[in-house]
Structure formats: C-alpha cells, structure tokens
Amino acid sequence: MIPIARIPVVAASVLALSLPLAFAACSGKDEEAAAEAGRQARLAELEQQKQELDTARAELADTEERLKQAEAGEGGEADPAQLRSEVQREDAELTTAAEELNAALTNFINEVAQEAAVGPGEPMPEAMQRAIALKAEEDMTLAREFITEGGDYARAIDMYTSILNYDPENQRVKDAIAEAEEGRYMSEERFSQVETGMTQAEVEELLGPVNLRNRREYLDQGIIAWYYPKSASRDAAGVWFRKRGDRWEVYRVDFDAVPAQGEES
C-alpha cells in the first residue's frame, strides 16, 4: 500500500517581507530600550511556538510510522483506521500551527522594521535578526517537506529561493538549493541502482521521493508505476511495481520509459 503522503500547506510562505531601508528615529535611548525589551519578550513567544511546532512534527512522524507498521501487519493490536484518523487530525493541527507561526513571524519582522531606527547599511536590531533566522529555519523545514512528502523539487526550490529574498546571505539555503537541483532530475547512474524485487521503500531510499503527480496506479492490472523526470523536457525513467503478498515489489525498470514528448512507451 502506498503510504499516506502529505503536501504541506504553506500559504504563509508567500507572505512578502517588506523591509524598508530607513525609518524614523526613536525619541530616546530609554524608549528604545523599552521597545527592545518588548521585542525580546515577543520573540521568546515565537521561539516557543517554533519548539512546540517541531514537537508536533515529531509526534506526527511517530504516528505515521505506527500507521505504516499497522498496515503492514506489524503493529500488534494497533487499529489502522484509528491511526489513520489520528494522522489526519495531527496533520490538520500541524498545518494550522505552521501557518500561524509563519504569519506571526512575518508580522513581527515588519513591525520591528517599521519601529527601529535603521538606516541604509546599518545593522538590524538583534531581535529582528533572530526572527529572520527563525523564519528562514521554518521555511526551510516546509521546503524540505515538499520533497520528502511529495517529491516536488520545483516547489521546494522556489521556496528556498524566496528565503533568499529576505535572508540573502543564508549559506544553508544556498546549499539546500544546490542539493535540490541535483536531486531534481534522475541520472542514469543513480537509476541503475534499482533492482527487481526491491520494495517501494527501498526504491525511495535510492532515488528519493517520487512526485505525487508522477505516480500512476493501474489497479485493474495490479500495477503501480513511478516516473522520475530526467530533464525539463518531460522525459522520465520508470519503475513498475507488482504486489507480492502484502508488499509492492519492482518487476520492471526502464530509464527511457517516457521520451521527451511526454508519452509513455
């Protein structure tokens, strides 16, 4: 059975960060100190939200793993239907929490930008720098989920690129873009590692997650096919699975399964 796949909702990722270059100066040092204390308190709340969100992600991953085991008959007395319901509930709660955190971080950054006395080329307030780093970390997590949950390298790369719009010197993001670009298209060398008899999990470990749009089910024939793009020309390599017992196994591989015009051979 194909594991439940989750496409993260990242409406907050498209919220534009507007960082004006110059702002009105504060009236005095005491006022600025009080303002900075308020920023630090609010930032601490946002950091706590981020920790709770990451904890929720770990809990969801654990529930998904228990569901996978239950569906494979390895979960003891665990009820797959109940676990599936838990996954859906936890996923919905996680999506809402992620949207709320992204919106709150964006608002906080813009509010600080409007309040702080920052001229062109001057350093940003420390709280603002930490908030930008926190938002970049969260957006990177969501971008990775596009790949791990849906095999969507293009959307992940777009999101990584959007991070550079507000955090242009983030080397981790630049490295992530390079890694995603490398994994986006299938090479013959990487594809040649797939062998008949492998499970879907083993193929995914070797080739990476397949894009949800590139999965085909021919259940009347008892076949599932995964297609991995080789270039922007829509040509793709193919892996076909047949079910043996309680698992799907590779029975055919073809690096030239789909020619450039996009029609399956």
Attribute tags:
265 residues; 4 strands; flat; disordered N terminus; 4-stranded antiparallel beta sheet; Beta-lactamase Inhibitory Protein, Chain:B, domain 1; 54% helix; alpha+beta
Largest sheet: 4 strands, antiparallel
Run of helices and strands = HHHHHHHEEEE
Strand content: 5-15%
Shape: flat
Proportion in helices: 40-55%
Broad structural category? alpha+beta
Secondary structure tally: strands: 4
Rg result: 23 Å
Topology:
Layout: H1 29-71, H2 80-115, H3 126-150, H4 153-166, H5 171-184, H6 188-191, H7 200-207, E1 215-218, E2 223-229, E3 236-244, E4 247-258
Helix pairs in contact: 1-2, 1-3, 2-3, 3-4, 4-5
Describe this structure in words.
- The protein has 265 residues and is of the alpha+beta class.
- It has two domains: 11-184, no CATH class; 188-258, Beta-lactamase Inhibitory Protein, Chain:B, domain 1 (2-Layer Sandwich).
- The chain is built from seven helices and four strands; from the N terminus they run H-H-H-H-H-H-H-E-E-E-E.
- It has helices at 29-71, 80-115, 126-150, 153-166, 171-184, 188-191, 200-207; strands spanning 215-218, 223-229, 236-244, 247-258.
- Strands 1-2-3-4 form a four-stranded antiparallel sheet, covered by helices on one side.
- Strand 3 (236-244) and strand 4 (247-258) form a beta hairpin.
- The protein is flat and about 75 Å long.
